[in-house]
Structure formats: C-alpha cells, structure tokens
C-alpha cells in the first residue's frame, strides 16, 4: 500500500480567551494521498485553521500541537522555522481567502510571480521570465506579456485570482491548500477558477485540500470530504456519497442549501441539539 503524502494525527489549535484557552481544532486526524480532499463546515468550524496549521502558520498567542504530522517522510512538527520556509511554497502552497488581496500592491504582477519562483529555484533571468509567461498562459490569462507589467489594482477580481494561483503553482508544489479561493467572485467566474485549479492539479499529479462552506461545490471538485463542526471531524465520506451522509450535522447542512426550484416555504435551520456532545 502506498504511504500517504500527508498524515496528521491529533492536531490541536487553541487561542487564549478571558475564560482560558479555547480549542478551535480538537484532535483532528486524517491521511491524504495524491487526491482531492474537501474540508467543509460553517464559519468557525476550524477549516481555515487546519490549513494554516499544516503549514505551521499559527502565530502567538495561538498554539498548535500534533502527535504526528508527516509530509512525504518529513516530520513537520520537528522542522525548524528555516526548514519550514523552504518547504512553504516549494512543496506545499496555500491560496488564502480573497487571494487578490494577498498580492503586493507596489510590485508588478510579473515581479511577484518571478519572486515566488526565484525563492525556490536558481534560474537565469530569461528562464524565469519564460516560466512566468508560460504559467500565466496556463491559468488562461490573455496577453501575458502585457499583464506582467500591471500592478494588482489594474486587474479584475477574476484575473487577480488567476494571478495568485499562478504564483502558488509556479514552484510546482506537491500539495495545494485552497482556502475559499473563490469566495469574492461571482458564480460564473468561480466555476472558471475552480475548473482551472482542478485541471492543473490533475495534470501535475498534485494533492489538493479544498476548504469551503459550499457542500455542492466541494462534492463536484473533490474525491473525498471531511465535514467539520466545532473543531472536530464529524463525518468523512466519498464526495459522490455526500448526499447519503448520515450525521445529523451534515444532514442539516444539506437540508439548508437552497434549491434552484425551491418549493419549501421556509429553509430548515440546524437542530444543534441533535449532535450535542459530538
């Protein structure tokens, strides 16, 4: 049996509050191969903190711990910060929420993508430029030779998302973590960006963790789904079996999704007493 690319055991993330430390991720465990894994749940369920914790991006006063967090034979819990900086971007990349706003407003698009490449590879200047143009082509940006000279405020939201995806993928990582990568876009552009991510992940044989609150979207683009509630995984299933989920929380989320041809007078609300103590 092939060893998983990423293996996480008993991951915990906490932050201080006036009443003591509050756990936002509570003993999370999962394995990930070169597949597409969706993590879904409400806001505050611990999805984004899980993605950040894999890259050890939880900063003080936050605290994270894990019994085991192995990535392709490397124990992420024991690596130094310098070693983690070499790993981030090069082998594990993360697209943050509203990624356009993660771009540096005073650097051109081309310089920012080139910087992401030069940080991890030593290449001649002309080779860097060629790779940047090639990457912009691959994310379906027209006239990349013109776009590389633009600043972030000169591009649209959809193009900004594509530029950020290009920046994260140009080092050719093994794992891409996409945290609500299309939350600020309209529905038609969302589909274009997610189709693009899906195509690049499949073509390059990468693993993907797609973090979202949209169950139908994750079911469409992922192979497997983890459903999180209050920092815990309450259900794990194949994406194709999501609508046959049995946990009351998952059933409640599915029931609350509006339908194109809605016939219900009221959308149901989550009955949280049904899984209290889960």
Task: Give a written overview of the molecule.
- With 278 residues, the chain is an alpha/beta fold.
- The protein has a single domain (6-257), classed as P-loop containing nucleotide triphosphate hydrolases (Rossmann fold, 3-Layer(aba) Sandwich).
- Helices cover 32% and strands 24% of the residues.
- It has helices at residues 47-54, 81-87, 109-118, 125-138, 144-147, 157-169, 187-204, 215-221, 248-255; strands at residues 6-17, 20-32, 36-40, 63-65, 68-71, 74-75, 92-95, 175-179, 207-212, 224-229, 232-238.
- Strands 7-8-9-3-10-11 form a 6-stranded mixed beta sheet, sandwiched between helices.
- Strand 8, helix 7 and strand 9 (207-212) form a beta-alpha-beta unit.
- The two termini are 32 Å apart.
- The model has no long low-confidence stretch (mean pLDDT 88).
- Binned strand content: 15-25%
Question: Kindly, what is the distance between the CA atoms of the first and last residues, rounded to a whole number of angstroms?
Answer: 32 Å
Number of extended strands: 11
Any low-confidence stretches, pLDDT <50, length ≥5?
none
Q: What is the count of DSSP helices, taking H or I runs of 4+ residues?
A: 9
CATH uppermost class: Alpha Beta
Structural class designation: alpha/beta
Q: How much is the average pLDDT? A: 88
User: What pattern of helices and strands is seen along the backbone?
Assistant: EEEHEEEHEHHHHEHEHEEH
Principal-axes shape call: globular
Q: State the share of residues found in helices, binned by percent.
A: 25-40%
CATH architecture: 3-Layer(aba) Sandwich
């Amino acid at each position: 049996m092939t060893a998983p690319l990423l293996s996480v055991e008993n991951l915990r993330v906490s932050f201080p509050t006036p009443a003591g430390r509050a756990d936002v991720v509570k003993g999370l465990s999962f394995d990930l191969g070169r597949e597409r894994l969706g993590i879904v749940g409400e806001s505050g369920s611990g999805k984004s903190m899980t993605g950040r914790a894999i890259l050890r991006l939880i900063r003080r006063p936050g605290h994270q711990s894990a019994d085991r967090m192995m990535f392709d034979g490397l124990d992420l819990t024991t690596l130094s910060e310098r070693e983690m900086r070499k790993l981030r971007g090069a082998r594990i990349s993360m697209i943050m929420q509203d990624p356009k706003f993660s771009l540096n407003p005073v650097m051109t698009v081309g310089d920012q993508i080139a910087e992401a490449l030069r940080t991890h590879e030593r290449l001649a200047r002309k080779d860097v430029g060629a790779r940047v143009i090639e990457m912009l082509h691959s994310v379906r940006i027209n006239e990349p030779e013109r776009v590389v000279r633009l600043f972030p405020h000169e591009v649209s939201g959809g193009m900004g998302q594509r530029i950020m995806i290009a920046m994260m993928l140009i080092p050719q990582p093994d794992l891409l973590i996409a945290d609500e990568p299309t939350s600020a876009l309209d529905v038609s552009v969302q589909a274009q960006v997610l189709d693009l991510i899906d195509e690049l992940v499949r073509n390059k044989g990468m693993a993907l963790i797609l973090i979202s609150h949209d169950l139908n979207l994750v079911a469409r683009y992922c192979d497997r789904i983890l459903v999180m509630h209050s920092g815990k995984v309450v259900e794990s299933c194949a994406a194709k079996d999501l609508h046959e989920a049995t946990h009351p929380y998952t059933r409640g989320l599915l029931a609350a999704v509006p339908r194109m041809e809605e016939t219900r007078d009221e959308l149901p609300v989550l009955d949280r007493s049904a899984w209290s103590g889960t």
